[in-house]
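Could you join me in thinking about how sequence relates to backbone shape in a protein? Label the sequence line and the structure token line clearly, so we can match residues to local backbone shapes. Once you have written the record down, we can walk along the chain together.
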Amino acid sequence: MGNSNSKAAKRIVVVDDNEDICAFMSAALRNAGYVVETATEGAQGLALLYNRPADLLVTDIFMRGQEGFETISRCRAEFPQTRIMAISAGSALSMKQDMLATAKLLGVDATLRKPFEADALVDAVRRALQ
């Protein structure tokens, strides 16, 4: 990227139990100049944060293992400086709405409904980091 300033690239941890979605998000965010680490469930994502805190945690809500709401709550408590973005496809339309609304109640900085394009993801991440 054409950034000549010395500001380090923002670090993002992406958590989704779908490896294809993880790879897609990781590629899109790396192309936008972010440093990205991925995890396939919440506890693994938090372990990455313990290892090296990130600027943003992007987490799916429905996952095997530690699901998104627990991951969001623990991240909020243990890494208050880390921004959080929740993503979800949910199942029924009304349920999607509820899950992302519930995530907002837990204090996430941004939400994004699946499926999404790479540019929508990058825009949402940029807003979450502001």
Observations:
- The chain has a mean pLDDT of 89.
- The longest helix spans residues 19-31.
- The chain has one domain: 11-129.
